[in-house]
Design brief:
The protein is an alpha/beta fold. The chain has 3 domains: 3-102, Rossmann fold; 106-311, UDP-N-acetylmuramoyl-L-alanine:D-glutamate ligase (3-Layer(aba) Sandwich), CATH 3.40.1190; 320-456, Protein-Tyrosine Phosphatase, Chain A, CATH 3.90.190.20. It contains 17 helices and 20 strands. It has helices spanning 3-10, 25-33, 46-49, 51-58, 89-96, 104-111, 125-138, 172-175, 201-213, 228-233, 283-295, 302-311, 339-347, 367-376, 387-395, 412-422, 444-456; strands at 14-18, 37-42, 62-65, 77-80, 100-102, 115-120, 143-147, 165-169, 184-187, 220-224, 240-245, 253-257, 260-265, 268-274, 320-325, 328-332, 353-357, 377-382, 405-408, 428-431. The protein has a 9-stranded mixed β-sheet, with helices on both faces. Helix 7 crosses helix 11 (283-295) and helix 14 crosses helix 15. The longest helix has 14 residues, at 125-138. It is globular. The N and C termini lie far apart (58 Å).
Length: 459
C-alpha cells in the first residue's frame, strides 16, 4: 500500500491530528490536500499558534486549541503526537468510543516500500542513526534519514525506491503503540529515563521492546551485550541477533578488544578498525560505532565503516566542540538529559572538567551521577530546578571534601559566565545537564544554541 492509497482510504472518515508540531504539520497538509475531513488539536492557545492556525483553517481544517483541545474528540482515526502518552484519559475515552489511535511513524512503517533500519535506546540514538546513514551512503546506497531525529518521512515514502534504505530514530514515545518492527532493529542501551512521563520502568522497557518484538525470522536485531535489559531481549527476538560489546567477545556481532574493533561471524573474527580511528571522543561513541557496524553488516563494506569512523564529526549538541578560547575548550552536550548520558560525557575526557548541569526533574535519582561528578569534575556549576538535588547527591558521596567546588546560579546565562570565569588554560567547560530543558527552554536544542551563542560571544 502506498501513502496515496492510504489517504484514499481515509476519505469519508473523520480524522483528528493531535499536536501540530514538526512531524504532524506535513501530515495535516497532506490530509487536507486529499480532502480528508480533518480536525487539528493542539494544547497551544490560538494566540500561541499564530499564523499557523490561520493557515490550517484556510486549507479547510477544523481546529481546537488551548486547554480543552482533547475534550470529547469524536472521530474515526486519531494521529497522536509522540509527546502525548496513549494512556491519556481523553485519548483512551476516544478509543473506547471507537476511534483508532495511530501516529505518523506507524503509518510510515505500513507504507514504506524499502528496507528499514530503526534505532532506539536511552542514549546514543541520534549519533548511531547518523553513523549508520553515513556508512550506507559511503557504500553507495540511497538513504533516507528521519523519525525522532527531526525529519518526517511519511510524505516521502511514495518517492522511495525499493532498493533504498530508510534509517529511522525512534523514541519510547513513538514506539509505545507501534505494531510493526523494522527489518533491522538496534537498541543501544536501556537505563531509567522519561519516568516523569512513563508510569513506571516496566512501561518504558516495554515501549523499547516494540522495536523488535514484531519482527520476522528474516529480520535482524542488534543489542548491547553489556546492558542487562538489552542482553535479555535476545531471548524474545524472532530473527537474527547480533550483539555488540566493549567488555566481552561475542560469537556473532561486534566487539572491542585491545583497542581493536572486531566483527565476528559464527565465532570467527576479523578486525574492522582501531578504536583510535574513531574521530568522536568517548567510549560511548565507540559503542555507537560498534552498534552501527552490526546494523550495516552485509549492507556496507569495512572500507565504508572505517572512512566513516575517521571523518564523522558528530551531531550538534552531542559533545560538540563550540570553540577554544585562551586554551579553554567549550563543549555543548545539551542532548544529555539523563544522568547516564552526562556520565558518558564526563568519561569522554581524560581530565577533570568544569561541568554545567541541572534542569527539569524527570523522576530519576542522581546518586550515581554524584559519584561520577566527584571523580570527573573539578568545578560544578548548577542551575535549574534540579540544582539542589544534584548538589545533595554530590554532598552525600562518602569522603566528599569540597572537591569539586559547587557553584549555584539562578540564571542559565550566569551559569555559563561563571563556568568561563572558573576556567584556566587547559581546562574543559562542558554543558551536560543530566536533565531535560523544559524548566526554561522549549527543547535541548534551544538550550544548546544559547550556550553556543554565549560561548562564541566571550571576549
Amino acid at each position: 500500500m502506498t501513502f496515496g492509497e492510504y489517504l484514499d482510504g481515509l476519505k469519508g472518515k473523520r480524522v483528528a491530528v493531535v499536536g501540530a508540531g514538526v512531524s504532524n504539520t506535513p501530515l495535516i497538509e497532506a490530509l487536507l490536500a486529499a480532502k480528508v475531513d480533518t480536525l487539528v488539536c493542539d494544547k497551544r492557545s490560538l494566540d500561541e499558534m499564530g499564523e499557523m492556525a490561520n493557515r490550517f483553517e484556510g486549507l479547510g481544517a477544523q481546529t481546537r486549541f488551548g486547554g480543552d483541545y482533547l475534550s470529547d474528540i469524536d472521530v474515526d482515526v486519531i494521529f497522536r503526537t509522540p509527546g502525548l502518552t496513549p494512556a491519556n484519559a481523553e485519548l483512551m475515552e476516544a478509543v473506547r468510543r471507537g476511534a483508532r489511535l495511530t501516529s505518523e511513524m506507524e503509518v510510515f512503517f505500513d507504507v514504506c516500500p524499502c528496507k528499514t533500519i530503526a534505532v532506539t535506546g536511552s542514549d546514543g540514538k541520534t549519533t548511531t542513526t547518523s553513523i549508520i546513514a553515513q556508512m550506507l551512503e559511503r557504500d553507495g546506497k540511497s538513504v533516507h534519514v528521519g523519525g525522532n531525529i527531526g525529519t518526517p518521512l511519511l510524505l516521502k515514502a511514495d518517492a522511495m525506491g525499493a532498493d533504498d534504505i530508510a534509517v529511522v530514530e525512534l523514541s519510547s514515545f513513538q514506539l509505545i503503540t507501534m505494531k510493526k518492527s523494522p527489518d533491522i532493529a538496534v537498541v543501544t542501551n536501556i537505563t531509567p529515563n522519561h519516568l516523569d512521563v512513563h508510569k513506571n520502568m516496566e512501561e518504558y522497557v516495554g515501549a523499547k521492546r516494540n522495536i523488535y518484538i514484531h519482527q520476522k525470522r528474516c529480520n535482524r536485531s542488534v543489542f548491547n551485550f553489556d546492558n542487562d535489559f538489552t542482553r535479555d531481549f535476545a531471548d524474545s527476538a524472532s530473527g537474527e541477533v547480533l550483539f555488540f560489546s566493549r567488555n566481552n567477545s561475542v560469537n556473532d556481532g561486534i566487539y572491542l578488544a585491545g583497542g581493536t574493533i572486531y566483527e565476528t561471524i559464527a565465532g570467527r573474527g576479523e578486525a574492522i578498525m582501531q578504536a583510535d580511528d574513531i574521530l568522536l571522543p568517548g567510549i560511548h561513541n565507540t559503542e555507537n560505532f560498534m552498534a552501527a557496524c552490526a546494523a550495516v553488516r552485509g549492507l556496507a563494506n569495512h572500507k565504508a565503516m572505517l572512512e566513516t569512523a575517521r571523518t564523522f564529526r558528530g551531531v550538534p549538541h552531542r559533545i560538540e566542540l563550540i570553540r577554544e578560547l585562551r586554551g579553554v575548550r567549550y563543549y555543548n552536550d545539551s542532548i544529555a538529559s539523563s544522568p547516564t548520558r552526562t556520565i558518558a560525557g564526563l568519561r569522554a575526557f581524560d581530565k577533570r572538567v568544569i561541568l554545567i548541569a541541572g534542569g527539569k526533574d524527570k523522576g530519576i535519582v542522581f546518586d550515581e551521577l554524584g559519584l561520577q561528578i566527584v571523580s570527573h569534575v573539578k568545578t560544578l556549576v548548577l542551575t535549574g530546578l534540579t540544582a539542589p538535588m544534584i548538589r545533595s547527591a554530590v554532598l552525600s558521596v562518602p569522603g566528599y571534601a569540597n572537591e569539586p567546588e559547587i557553584l549555584l546560579c539562578d540564571d542559565f546565562t550566569d551559569a555559563v559566565y561563571t563556568a568561563a570565569k572558573s576556567a584556566q588554560d587547559g581546562d574543559i567547560v562542558l554543558l551536560s545537564p543530566a536533565c531535560t530543558s523544559f524548566d526554561r527552554f522549549k527543547n535541548f536544542e534551544e538550550r544548546g544554541d544559547l550556550f553556543a551563542e554565549i560561548v562564541k560571544g566571550l571576549a
